[in-house]
Amino acid sequence: MEHQSTLSTTQDEVDKAHYIQEQSHRATYITVFLILGVLTFFEVFIPEIYAADYSSITKMLLLCVLAFGKAALVALYFMHLKYESPWLRWIGYTPIYMGFAVIIIMLETVYR
Fold it and tell me: What digits encode the pLDDT tens for the residues 15-68?
């Protein structure tokens, strides 16, 4: 009889630990979601702020930096790459090189 009460107490502790862990992940996801919303807000208004012809490079670079920041947040938290092994994380980060290539190509067309 006493063994069952110890087992149920242990199960209660496990349930409490799962609940606390779920709450911490929920807070993290809400924080990341709000940060993504703020970055999107800036992305919408950057073209209006830098509307002059002489600031097109600044506008392009700011938008690319914001896009990379948002992509990194999504990859790290919503795709759970932050909690993966380094090898799997490396595989997930390989498209970043393609993004750098796109930025270099865009800069090359601007300076042509």
Answer: 665 556 566 778 888 999 999 999 999 999 888 877 777 677 788 888 888 988
Domain boundaries, the chain: 2-110
For residue 60, give both structure tokens.
Answer: 């392009």
Q: What is the reported pTM?
A: 0.64
**CA geometry: angle at 55 spanning 99 and 74, to 5°?**
30
